[in-house]
Prior knowledge:
It is an enzyme of class 2 (transferase). The chain has helices at residues 9-18, 25-43, 81-90, 137-148, 163-172, 200-205, and strands spanning 2-5, 49-56, 59-66, 71-77, 95-96, 98-103, 110-116, 125-129, 132-133, 153-161, 177-183, 186-187, 193-194.
Amino acid sequence: MAVYEVKHPLIQHKLGLMRQSELSTKQFRELSSEVARLLTYEATKDLETETITVNGWAGPVSVHQIKGKKITVVPILRAGLGMMNGVLDMIPSAKVSVVGLYRDEETLEPVAYYQKFTSGMEERIALIIDPMLATGGSLLATIEMLKKSGCRRIKGLFLVAVPEGIEKITAAHPDVEIYVASIDERLNEQGYILPGLGDAGDKIFGTK
Ligand code: PRP
Ligand code: URA
């Protein structure tokens, strides 16, 4: 099981700001991107590199570069888009594969409405991004779509998760790595994370 709660002071500080109810859409968006950047740094620390020689100011010099061009970022619509710029700031050449899902408000089951993956999924590391991992239904559905496309290496980046959602994923897909800024306490009766952030999609898009 690979679940990393990334307790970096910058992440904790920024997430603390995000929990305030009086935040503007602009502030919530900016902070989502900033935390996503920091989670990306952590989630990519095991990427393989290779040594190459470049012409430096004083002659040839050996440097490291990331091997291949193998990452695809997978935002789960809609709220996952709020983390995308932060991830792409760190990995500008990453391809983007989009999954469209929403949670049925009554059943809390995910409803799929869109899927568009880049080519060569078998060779890529998928970085799923979504601010919230609640019941785990949306993530489970996304992992199943990715595995069906041939993707074998999957990591998920989240702002907030709860233990029951994490357990659902680790039980079904123990190979998937989870990076999260905070593991919160529990879900309320409507399936919202407590203390959580509220409705992340609404806050990022300025709806409701
Ligand atoms: C939220 C969130 C996740 C999902 C998490 O999306 O962004 O995708 O709920 O819940 P789960 O773990 O119980 O599946 P939502 O369905 O509200 O859609 P939105 O992103 O379009 O607002
Ligand atoms: N989706 C959200 O936007 N917030 C939650 O707390 C749970 C699911």
